Amino acid sequence: MTTPDSASAAPRTDRRRFLKGAAGVALGTSLYSFGDPLTVLAARTRPKALKPDGDLLYFNWAQYIDQGILKGFAKEYKVKVHEANFTNMQGMLAKLRAGVRYDVAFPEAQFADQLVRANFLLPLDHSKLANFEQIFKPLQNPWYDPGAKYSVPYSVWTTGIAWRSDRVNHALTKSWNDLWTHPETAGHTFLLDDYQEVIGMSLLRNHVPNINTTASSQVSKAVAEILKLKPRLRGFTSVNTEMANGTSWLTHMWSGTVYQALLVMKHPETLHYQVNKEGIPVGSDCLVIPKNAPHPNTAMLFLDYMLRPESSASNTKTIGYPMQTRTGLATYSSLVKKYPWLQVTFDEVLHGKHFLPQTGSGLQLWDTAWAKIKA
């Protein structure tokens, strides 16, 4: 089993131990082989000691939750949900660091680790989370937040390339190089609006196995290759809109966002997705409560509401990213039967490439590299 090595990886990051525990509960090659969801439903319970202390100020990606859940929460607790969206992790962190107040935010795992270390998050009282046991057991002790003291896991995904067969005739080669060389897609190609995903993908294409490298020569070469690609690009995006409406023919994309596009396309059979032979980035998101949250009780109620079996099931069906609860994983298992190429396997989780927090000079190197790419 391999794990990512990084000069900036923190000592407490023990992904090997986490993944070994996850593999121990596997029932098959799929990460989501958990059988009939009805056998894992828990009683719907509300923490009686907790009452809302105001409206919910909610900060998330766009298109990344079942809107029915927000409406249901607002109705049940007689509050309003004020939704704000970010387009990349840097934007989310900038707002939190600037002191902008939100009740709930949705960072990626490596950024949650940074927020925990910077003392930006409110500790969670698990006794107020009646549905905490719905979380898939290994993720009750995630590598980025031991003991889940500050976070609740949300979703997991792979990163690869999506394309439309009604626009693209030439076959892809299951390589990141397809973004650079496909003969039909110049001017119709998008990259993710995410600095780690873009630079990491270019590192993999250059056969650099460590996608968290802080070696200046490796990062500089990755940036140079992205700059060569830029004339072929239509833009950067982290949502499904461009692929769904046909603006994009070939896109650097998260597996769950591919599923979102499938749901809204008139001819979903024309959409395809591949992971690539040079390496597969694998990531996860979580829910956190910032320490300066104006309504921490409402935030805790929302986290618990998200963990309810019925919320996990409906949200997984809507966003195409499996919620990391027992019901969410079982629901996703049924979804990938129709689209098996969206399946996330234990092999990918065990041997995929995981981004770790960048700090100090390493973070400055990557920030400068991203600024060059986006200039």
End-to-end Cα distance, whole Å, is: 39 Å
- Per CATH, the architecture of the largest domain is 3-Layer(aba) Sandwich
- Count of strand segments: 9
Estimated share of beta-strand residues = 5-15%
How many structurally independent domains? Answer: 2
User: CATH H level of the largest domain: which superfamily?
Assistant: Periplasmic binding protein-like II
Summing up helix and strand content along with how strands pair, one would put the structural category as: alpha/beta
**pLDDT average, as an integer?**
87
* Rg, nearest Å: 20 Å
* CATH topology heading of the largest domain: D-Maltodextrin-Binding Protein, domain 2
Helix and strand run: HEHEHEHEHEHHEHEHEEHHHHH
Shape: globular
State the helical fraction: 25-40%
